[in-house]
Design brief:
The chain is built from 29 helices and twelve strands. By secondary structure, it is α/β, with parallel strands linked by helices. It folds into three domains: 36-188, no CATH class; 210-405, no CATH class; 457-708, TIM Barrel (Alpha-Beta Barrel). It has an eight-stranded mixed beta barrel, surrounded by five helices. A two-stranded antiparallel ribbon has the order 1-2. The chain is elongated and about 125 Å long.
Length: 709
């Protein structure tokens, strides 16, 4: 192997195994950052707006070319309206995103976000027309600041005892937050207006630096247009004033050139559209070609959407679908490709190898046609265009190839056994976090619709499934289960709980079950003694800061004599904050609550649960019973029982349905069981007679023993 080949091999290995790996790992932190996610959510919201705007501009160009001047003007005015609407849409969608993620009222979050935006806008200009004069940075900042402040206020109020169970806390926190923002803004407006003016002047001077008056400032302009896409922000939207002034100056320059009063400038908006934005910002037409060159690439499915749009230089589907957004790896070629194109095109123009731009051509005009028209029908310009397309493919290729090595889509599950986060590179338009966020929002809306239907067409009711001591077949505990009863009397099992999980409303369901089950026991089963009431608690509820206070409230009224309250945590569901869960469980045990681990053996990290959490009971999953049919099934069950015995917990097995299964689980050393062999889930009015009969039999047996003595 030659020294050159060895050097290339070392560089390639370093690129793939060091730089790209580190960049991929850094993406994990970005994907888990709630502020970055909020920005991406808002930028995703205007993707349809951007696509429609691009199509409207294309329609305007076609109408202008065909001589329909009135229609062309109408379409152009329409796209200006879309442009002005974009920041407001982003502001509103940040509020929606925040509400969904934090289980807050969307109405209040949206109202707070818009109110904050209005207040901030008035600080800068008392005469500004609100709906027509908003910058995207201001829209994003006001949305995040307003909702973060409301979150802080809400948590502070919940620490005050008299607010713990107040259903109007959202309203109160809304007005307190708005008052804080208004007060702070008034202080700035009245006492520090001169400083605000200076800050705005400073940003204005910075923006002037990006104005492409010469070669170096032209490089800055390329970076301005491409780098913000890392956060899903279009550079044109961020610094629209620069582009408006730049376009106006280019039109004046071309008019003066036609009149013979001035030479053509090298730099113009069309120059960037021709050489640096082929297929859209980042010269993404080269990226599309790279994807086509990878026959096994999962991104090829994306091209059915992205390729037709790229012909008109609309690249949002590709940027969000590949993705470029929040992707530290792909942002490198996304910036490097147009920068290389700028250097080559500027040099070729400066040396008169290709003509300077002599016509204003819309950015949405397909690439080769745009080059042909803007260059005055120059063949050399077309050759340079093809050369830049090839250079773009060369730059994008190693990065696209690297992304192909990431075989599976995003998976941000926390491994509870190791405590590590598992995240893989997205590999499909439908799997990337930003696109998935849109799918998530659609699922959220559908879940809300289903919940409203449940509430409208019936009511929730409680069922109880007895847990039995095998030795004497006595009921020792009742697991409370939720069901839905329609107005027609149809009973639905808890398949509807997935809608509450999607909307983050599981705590409301769990709280409802807990309160109503305890009230039912106190009212209808007060003469049944020494029993355990077992309530399922979801992972969402375990980390809800209202849980300890609610438990204190419901336990303020004593249970019937000898009754205990038990919470079942579900091992088959992932827990997002295991440290917080462990702390909560300790507090619950201090309040006298027993802790049971449900579905043991069917979930994420069973051993980790046994060592991390304080447990009183372990419920073995029905899969253990089904495993008894296998050759080593019984031996395996025995070993699981021994393992559970080490931590000194009661052991209950679920799903026992036959006499043979009962005999085997008893032989394995299990004392408690729950299943159809004894009882199915039953309404309270059916369970109570069973408990009453059991109490009478126990009393009769006690009397017989006493009489014998």
């Amino acid at each position: 192997m030659s020294l050159i080949a060895l050097g290339n091999f070392v560089i390639k290995e370093w690129l793939y195994n060091n730089l790209l790996r580190r960049l991929n790992n850094s993406q994990i932190k970005l994907l888990n950052n709630r502020y970055a996610n909020a920005i991406i959510a808002s930028t995703m919201a205007i993707v349809p707006l951007s696509i429609v705007r691009g199509l409207v501009i294309t329609a305007s160009v076609i109408c202008d070319t065909a001589g329909f001047n009135s229609a062309a003007v109408w379409f152009m005015q329409l796209q200006i309206g879309f442009l002005a609407l974009a920041p407001l849409v982003m502001n509103i969608y940040i509020a929606v995103h925040w509400a969904v993620r934090n289980r807050l009222s969307q109405i209040y979050c949206i109202a707070l976000s818009i109110s904050t935006l209005m207040i901030f806008r008035r600080i800068l200009d008392n005469n500004a027309q609100f709906f027509l004069d908003i910058s995207i940075p201001m829209a994003l900042a006001s949305g995040i600041i307003g909702n973060v402040l409301q979150e802080i206020v809400s948590k502070k109020l919940l620490k005050i005892r008299q607010w713990n169970d107040n259903t109007n806390i959202t309203i109160v926190s809304f007005f307190i937050t708005l008052g804080i923002i208004a007060l702070f803004s008034s202080v700035i407006k009245l006492g520090a207006e001169i400083y605000v003016t200076n800050v705005m002047s400073f940003f204005s001077r910075i923006s002037v630096y990006f104005y492409p008056t010469d070669f170096l400032h032209g490089i800055s302009y390329v970076l301005l247009r491409s780098v913000p896409w890392f956060f899903g922000l279009h550079g044109y939207y961020l610094f629209m004033d620069i582009d408006v002034a730049f376009t106006a100056a280019a039109k004046v320059n071309i008019s003066e050139w036609h009149a013979g009063h001035s030479a053509l400038n090298i730099l113009s908006p069309v120059f960037y559209d021709m050489w640096c934005n082929s297929g859209g910002t980042g010269n993404t037409l080269s990226l599309i070609i790279c994807i086509l060159m990878q026959p096994k690439s999962p991104h090829r499915r994306l091209l059915s959407i992205a390729a037709p749009m790229a012909l008109f230089n609309i690249n949002e589907p590709l940027i969000f679908g590949f993705p470029i957004v929040l992707n530290p790896v792909m942002i490198i070629p996304f910036v490097l490709t147009p920068l290389t194109a700028y250097l080559v095109a500027y040099g070729a123009t400066y040396m008169d190898l290709i003509p300077r731009i002599s016509e204003i051509v819309s950015w949405s005009t397909p690439g080769p046609l745009k080059v042909w028209l803007a260059s005055g029908h120059s063949v050399s310009a077309l050759i340079v265009y093809l050369l830049l397309l090839v250079l773009g493919v060369i730059i994008y290729h190693p990065f696209v190839k690297s992304s192909l090595k990431q075989s599976v889509a995003e998976n941000t599950n926390l491994d509870l056994l190791t405590g590590e986060m598992k995240v893989n590179q997205p590999a499909d338009f439908e799997m990337v976090p930003n696109y998935s966020h849109v799918v998530e929002q659609n699922n959220y809306i559908e879940a809300q619709r289903q919940i409203e239907k449940l509430q409208r067409d019936g009511q929730f009711i409680l069922y109880f499934q007895p847990q039995v001591r095998i030795a004497d077949s006595k009921i020792v505990a009742l697991e409370v289960l939720i069901r839905h009863q329609s107005d027609a009397g149809k009973i639905t099992p808890p398949v509807f709980l997935k809608y509450y999980e999607q909307t983050g409303m599981m705590p409301e369901i769990d709280f409802w079950v807990m309160e109503h089950a305890l009230d039912y026991v106190r009212e209808h089963m007060s003469d049944c003694e020494k029993m355990t009431l077992s309530v399922n608690i979801s992972p969402q509820t375990l980390i809800d800061y209202r849980l300890p206070n609610l438990v204190r409230k419901v336990m303020a009224t004593p249970l019937p004599s000898g009754w205990n309250l038990e919470f079942e945590i579900t091992e088959s569901q992932k827990v997002q904050d295991p440290v917080r869960v462990a702390e909560v469980l300790e507090k619950l045990r201090e309040l006298g609550i027993k802790i049971a681990l449900d579905d043991f053996g069917s979930g994420y990290s069973t051993l980790h649960y046994l060592t991390r959490y304080p447990l009183d009971k372990i419920k073995l999953d029905r899969s253990m019973v089904l495993g008894l049919a296998k050759p080593d099934g019984f031996n395996f069950l025995q070993q699981v029982v021994k393992l559970c015995t080490v931590i000194q917990c009661e052991i209950l097995i679920e799903g026992v349905e036959t006499q043979q299964e009962l005999e085997l689980v008893q032989k394995a050393g299990i004392e408690l069981c729950q299943g159809f062999f004894y009882y199915r889930p039953l309404p309270g009015d059916v369970v109570y007679p069973l408990l009453k009969e059991q109490r009478q039999q126990a009393s009769l047996a006690h009397q017989q023993v006493a009489a014998t003595v």
